[in-house]
Amino acid sequence: MKILVIGAGIAGCALGLALSKAGIACKLVDLKPAPTTAGGAFLTLAPNGIKALRSLGLESMLEGAGGFEQSGLEFFNANGRKIAAIKGENDLSVYGACGVVMRRARLQEVLEAAALKAEIPIEYGRQVKSVSETGDGVKVAFDDGSSEQADIVIGADGIWSQVRRATWPQAPNPLYTGIVDCGGWAKVDLPDTTRQQMHFGNRAFFGYTVKDKTAYWFTNIPEAIAPERGELEKIAPEVWLTKVRELNREAVEPVRHILAMADSAIGAWPLYNMPPLPTWHTRRVCLIGDAAHAVSPSTGQGASLAVEDAAVLAMCLRDNAEPQRAFERYLDVRKARAESIMEFGRQIGDRKVASTMGSWFRDLTLVFFLRMGRSATKEQYSYQIDWNANMAQEHLQ
């Protein structure tokens, strides 16, 4: 069976490695021209994401990605008063893993290197133009005039997935949230933080964590009008940093200190919510990761869900001879979980948009909202993948 995976990011590389573990060959195709540093500042792999890597035998590769363990959150209002907290000190004993903070580019690099070491072919500089299913396969045409025939195609090509657009032309587009995310890191004279620190400012939301005199920071900037695709990439990082400093000039310390010590922002990215899709697959085409269910960065679950998807889909293809039955089983296992986390992320994101009345109401109700969210967090972190489980479709009956 020839499997063509479109996208060699976190989701695509994780899927290639999961399929390799299952004894299934595949080829990855990516739009970028060559193995390059991925975008984004930093991310957190949640306990469930760490356990998903563990199920694939890949947890040890995180040593090469750097990063550090950290669990828990503390929330502060614009005056610097702590208004809520989520404990995470017992995550290892409760969930079997702690979250790991790391630079997104490093996670991408180690996954890509692992895929190449496993002799998984990756072809670069190819953009999907069309996807056409036939009776016995799928034809993928590329914008350079070339095409490939495969038995199945997996779209792991992100929130703006060309596979999704080509296969489901009427599928909803991502919806702009009114927020642009910006972040980076800076050398600071601050002690390590035991939990990630979240500040609801009057004009912007700011979050950070400190490890070994380095502050990993991000800020959510309100922007009413959605930027054009690629528009933000043309703005110099130092211009973004100037804007971020201005929006946070009334913020409490150490927010201002961190921004004063920052050399530049790594970049800026508009945030989108992905409406739930009716389905993620046809007979021979299937979506994983952000292509199927892009979740808000507020959840801290994007990369973790992508690795989970990769492991589960590989198991389903391993245990079901017919691709459609494998996809149906994958959908049964994954869709409700992902959409629940998508909705939770939307609720969190709505609370980051600053306004005087909104800030007052948020400060008053955040602790109750987080209390309700504890059960959701427990469900997210407790998720366990058993690689030896039988994922055959008949086991559902």
TrEMBL record:
The keyword Heme does not apply. SUPFAM superfamilies: FAD/NAD(P)-binding domain. GO terms for molecular function: monooxygenase activity. InterPro entries: FAD-bd, FAD-dep_Monooxygenase_BioMet, FAD/NAD-bd_sf. Residues 2-166, 279-344 form the FAD-binding domain. Keywords: Monooxygenase, Oxidoreductase. Coiled coil: none annotated. The keyword Oxidoreductase applies. This is FAD-binding monooxygenase. It comes from Rhizobium anhuiense.
